[in-house]
Design goal:
The strands form two sheets. The protein has a seven-stranded mixed sheet. Strands 1-3-2 form a three-stranded antiparallel sheet. It contains 13 helices and ten strands. By secondary structure, the protein is α+β, with helices and mostly antiparallel strands. The protein has two domains: 103 residues, Arc Repressor Mutant, subunit A (Orthogonal Bundle); 150 residues, Aminopeptidase (3-Layer(aba) Sandwich). The chain is elongated, with a radius of gyration of 31 Å. InterPro entries: Acyl_CoA_acyltransferase, GNAT_dom, HTH_MarR-typ, NAT_camello-type, Tscrpt_reg_MarR-type_CS, WH-like_DNA-bd_sf, WH_DNA-bd_sf. Keywords: DNA-binding, Transcription, Transcription regulation, Transferase. This is GNAT family N-acetyltransferase.
Length: 316
């Protein structure tokens, strides 16, 4: 079975490269028809220089959609063949201005005629196809500008993996996982404190028995995420001990745990959710903002030395 038939649209990039290689190879034969010693890959740069003189390298790259490095390499070859010149600009010595040489100017009419013939032949070629590839490429480029291929693949992957994640309620056998996951991230950035050890070593006593709740995330048969609700003296709940294993990050587990914790706090009759964090934990703070938390300066004194930001979410 043909490679492209087997993979289908998954091989779109490879299929386009094959088509590009085919057309580039045939373009060489076209230049031979006109007795022009010219490389097909030079044409976008040469055409831009010929039609828009006095541009610098960066402007040429922007106009043809190539990298600065790629344009610079082509210009080196065109200079070597005495078709263009590259000189420092009079107004700005840091900018190199590109122009046709006398030899390039002499070549330009023949290239213009060839380009006109190629355009006409290509229009005939496109008319022979059911789908106009030129228009389709424009649509594809627009679609990719709205959402990259990587972002689209990530969305499909995350959707698939999210379906394999289960949220569970804590039970005593989960205590080692609850402590391991939290100790791992705390010790990576800070140090375990007495308040941490009380909750992590004795969650039944310090969290559950006092009216709190613990949620867990399971993926691939392993506990990879935790999140706790600790009941506060004013009837509010503290969102605490949220952790996701490094191997499971990027699957949206933190967001799912956070959303489930907010829903659970509402179900328990909580009027407000409160949390403590540190400003060096950028991804965590972004998650809290996404859940609706906002910074507060009216929180109680923290038992943690690492705490330098307090946040709250009103549930009513």
């Amino acid at each position: 079975m043909d490679f492209f038939e087997q993979l289908g649209p998954a091989a779109l990039g490879s299929r386009l490269r094959r088509l590009s290689d085919t057309m580039t190879g045939q373009a060489t034969a076209v230049y031979a028809l006109y007795h022009l010693s010219f490389e097909p890959r030079w044409f976008p740069v040469f055409y831009t220089v010929a039609t828009q003189p006095a541009l610098h390298v960066g402007e040429i790259a922007d106009r043809i959609g190539h990298t600065h490095a790629a344009v610079s390499q082509v210009l080196k070859e065109l200079v070597k063949h005495e078709l263009v010149s590259v000189q420092r600009g009079e107004a700005d010595q840091r900018r190199s201005i590109v122009a046709l040489t006398p030899k390039g100017t002499e070549l330009w009419p023949a290239l213009q005629q060839q380009a006109a013939d190629v355009r006409q032949a290509t229009e005939v070629l496109l008319a022979e196809t059911r789908h106009n590839l030129w228009l389709a490429i424009g649509e594809m480029e627009y679609a990719l500008s709205r959402g990259t291929l990587a972002s689209r693949v990530k969305a499909i992957r995350d959707q698939r993996l999210t379906g394999a994640v289960r949220l569970l309620d804590y039970t005593p056998p989960h205590q080692p996982d609850f402590k391991r996951l939290n100790a791992e991230w705390i010790e990576r950035y800070f140090r375990l404190e007495e308040a941490d050890l009380n909750a992590l070593d004795h969650p039944d006593e310090y969290i559950l028995a006092r009216g709190g709740h613990i949620l867990l995330a399971e993926y691939g048969g392993q506990i990879v995420g935790t999140c706790a609700l600790i009941k506060m003296s004013d009837g509010a709940y503290e969102l605490a001990k949220m952790a996701v294993a490094p191997t499971a990050q990027g699957l949206g587990i933190g967001l799912r745990l956070g959303e489930a914790a907010v829903a659970k706090a509402r179900a328990l009759g909580g009027q407000r959710l409160y949390l403590e964090s540190n400003t060096k934990l950028g991804p965590a703070l972004n998650l809290y903002h996404k859940l609706g938390f906002r910074k507060t300066i009216s929180g109680p004194p923290s038992p943690y030395t690492r705490c330098n930001i307090q946040m709250e979410l009103l549930l009513t």
